[in-house]
Amino acid sequence: MKDMLGRGEVIPADEALDRIFSNLSQKLPSEKRLKIVESLGRILFRDVLSPEDLPDFARSTVDGFAVSASDTFGATEGIPAYLNVKYEIFMGEEPDFELRKGEVARIATGGMLPKGSDAVIMLEYAQQVDEEMIEVVRPVAPGENVIQAGEDVKKGESVLNKGHALRPQDIGVLAGLGITDVWVYEKIKISIISTGDEIVPPDKPVRRGQVRDINSYNLAGLISNAGAIPLLKGIFHDEYSIVRNIVEKSLRDSGIILISGGSSVGKRDVTAQVINDLGRPGVLFHGVSLKPGKPLIGGIVNNIPIFGLPGHPAAVTVCFNVFIMPVIRTLSGLSKNRFEQDQRIIRARIAKNISSSPGREEHIGVYLEKRDGEIWAVPLLGKSGLMTTLIKADGMAVIPLRKLGVETGEIVEVRLF
User: Fold this and answer.
1) d(CA 278, CA 255)
2) Residues 79 and 20 in one domain
3) Residue 97 half-sphere exposure toward CB, CA atoms < 13 A
4) Neighbours of 70 (CB within 10 A)
5) How far apart are CA 323 and CA 339, in angstroms?
């Protein structure tokens, strides 16, 4: 059964995404070696194994006195233990002495423990009697205030696993282990093809009835944020031979192809026909129960996902986040993390009553504000073609598929930009 525009029956977003993944054979990109200073956000191609223990010596976690813990047993404020200050340990140097019974050495945070010691007394629990003696008013246990050799990382241990996206703290640990380069996946290249006789480049004047190309640049930013490489192929007329030619060329150098403005059904919209004619399985769906974004086309040609995106900027952003982002993550080699998506999702109270069409997952632009310690999502209501709605929004509030709207004060899920 087809709708008024000639599309087949629309399907839920999760079913549409399942169709993409069930017809897609995962082919991961090749690898390259990068310096760690250039590797932020890159996805590891190999497990990283530690070449050494970290730390490779026992060191203090506090400023105080290195001591044999047994010399402090039973110490109290009323009956302190008196110990002799014999040495001082300097940062970056290996102690060339061994503590004897009743002796301690001054030590700073990070200093190396000398032989004969197994704990550190914090300065707060050591009273200076004179330059050569302290009284200890609290006992320490063996290993107290000490990081043992290899306690952080042991030699040969996996520090970071294949498929992990490198964060600043990861790069810091690699540097601490003396690892200066890593093997990572190459970034996926994603072609952006803009179609429409009314579309002109942003540096050109517009005539009445024309609009500048917004979606290509919006998509380029979304793609870059997702860790992929955007390939802006240009603006093309809505003619079958022209669109087919540029899609065929893009199949040779892209991991994913995005066609902007060619998903609505009409005599000049040829995206679905091109996808079907270029290879199997072709179009997997045309129309999803999503607002904005209902006209979305999804297909696969020669194991390369191709999406025909709606023309409205808000719809493009929603479709990218719901459909294209998961595909990028999978094809880039990123390991699955069930908490990854939740990191950009918050729960907030909706600030207005919102009605919703039944049978459609609705995404509404909102800006966030704090009221009496709670986060409220204020809807930015407007037609999907309005551009400034996206600029003002902090994210999209989601009204689930089978929910008939939300009432003021009700908790909603907000997917942050």
Assistant:
1) 16
2) no
3) 13
4) 13
5) 18
pLDDT tens digit sequence for 218-255: 999 999 999 999 999 999 988 899 999 999 999 999 99
Q: Which CATH number do you get for residue 367?
A: 2.40.340.10
pLDDT digits (tens, 9 = 90+) for 333-369: 998 765 555 568 899 999 999 988 777 889 999 999 9
3 located within any domain: no
Q: How many helices (H) and strands (E) does the chain have?
A: 8, 26
Cα 399 → chain centroid: 24
Classify the phi-psi angles of 411: left when phi > 0, otherwise alpha if psi is within -120 to 50, otherwise beta: beta
CA distance 8 to 6: 7
Domain annotation covers residue 231: yes
The reported pTM is: 0.81
Q: What is the CA radius of gyration of the chain?
A: 31
DSSP 53: -
Question: Considering the domain boundaries, does residue 336 fall inside one?
Answer: no
Q: At what angle do helices 271-278 and 240-250 cross, to 10 degrees?
A: 50
Domain that holds residue 374: 342-416
Residues 162 and 172 occupy one common structural domain: yes
Count of domains observed in the chain = 4
* Residues 181 and 36 occupy one common structural domain: yes
